[in-house]
Design a protein that fits this description.
The relative contact order is 0.21. The protein contains 13 helices and no strands. Helix content is about 80%, strand content about 0%.
């Protein structure tokens, strides 16, 4: 028994550190994503351009796994109806709205509003649909989140130097939070496998991309190759595939509850990357709002 215990302890430590590493890398990728999306605007790419690049590259990388795993192809155990609904909520339409929001609002707004509002919307929808009542500490955390997001609203609308057109981006980010919250509740209710959902939503998004190409502004032909490569590699490979693997691995090693505790790091990563890469310096009100959202997310995620 003592030999078993002594050998199990180092293994548990390795699993813990590996899980922490996967969680940190996931937050790093997601945090910088808002900055990379914002950079696409400066590089002259449209939201449709970035969405097409993301799902074309991610689908190409996931195709070998899909051919082995998904029966029937490409929806697997999800079935066509559920897979199409989840794709509409978390596939190409979600990415289009997210990148579209980055056209109008600073990168920090995306990384605060979207992950901050997702738990708020999820609790509201769970209460309205399933009658689930959140506990006191979760309500306190969500109240802090809303106070922080209200600070961003004040900066956008009510400050002495309002940010022109940023409100459009903020509203699009709110739509993202609603879409992801509905997606999460449906995936939970249907007992969906995370990898199956990601593969199906990526591959089914390919069906929507021609519609985007025909009906929305496209500037790929006029853009520099380095700008195209940045979006293809980051959005498609790192976000579409890498973050999926790392987050799934962190859930496996740490459990779902502890894996979500890394989410409050996203705004910090975005704020630092925005300053370093874009020269977007947050105002005092935005910093205060970010800290409120981080505190609220931390409290809400730890609450039962």
């Amino acid at each position: 028994m003592s030999d078993f215990t002594s050998s199990a302890a180092p293994l548990a430590r390795r699993r813990l550190w590996l899980g922490l590493g996967c969680g940190l890398l996931t937050s790093l990728i997601w945090g910088v994503q808002a900055v990379v999306s914002r950079q696409s605007v400066a590089d002259g790419l449209s939201a449709a351009d970035v969405t097409i690049l993301r799902f074309a590259v991610a689908s190409l990388l996931l195709l070998p796994l899909a051919l082995r795993r998904m029966r029937p192809f490409p929806v697997g155990a999800l079935g066509w109806r559920r897979a199409l609904i989840l794709t509409a909520l978390a596939g190409a339409p979600y990415a289009l709205v997210l990148v579209g929001g980055a056209t109008f609002a600073p990168a920090l707004h995306a990384s605060v509003i979207v992950p901050g509002l997702i738990p708020v919307m999820t609790v509201a929808l769970a209460f309205a649909v399933m009658g689930e009542r959140p506990g006191l500490w979760r309500m306190l955390g969500l109240s802090l989140v809303l106070a922080g997001i209200a600070a961003f609203g004040w900066e956008t609308f009510g400050s002495s130097r309002p940010q022109e057109s940023a409100w459009i981006g903020d509203l699009l980010f709110v739509a993202n939070a609603v879409m992801w919250s509905v997606f999460g509740l449906l995936a939970r209710r249907w007992g969906c496998d995370a990898i199956d959902v990601t593969i199906a939503t990526c591959l089914l998004s390919l069906l929507i991309l021609p519609v985007f190409a025909l009906t929305m502004p496209m500037r790929l032909g006029d853009s520099a190759w380095p700008a195209i490569a940045l979006q293809a590699l980051y959005q498609g490979a790192l976000v579409g595939v890498g973050a999926l693997f790392l987050y799934t691995k962190s859930v496996e090693l740490l459990g779902a509850a502890r894996a979500t505790l890394f989410l409050p790091l996203n705004p910090v990563v975005t704020a630092l990357a925005g300053v370093a890469l874009l020269g977007e310096y947050p105002s005092g009100i935005e910093i205060a709002g970010m800290l409120l959202v981080i505190a609220g997310m931390s409290v809400a995620l730890r609450a039962r």
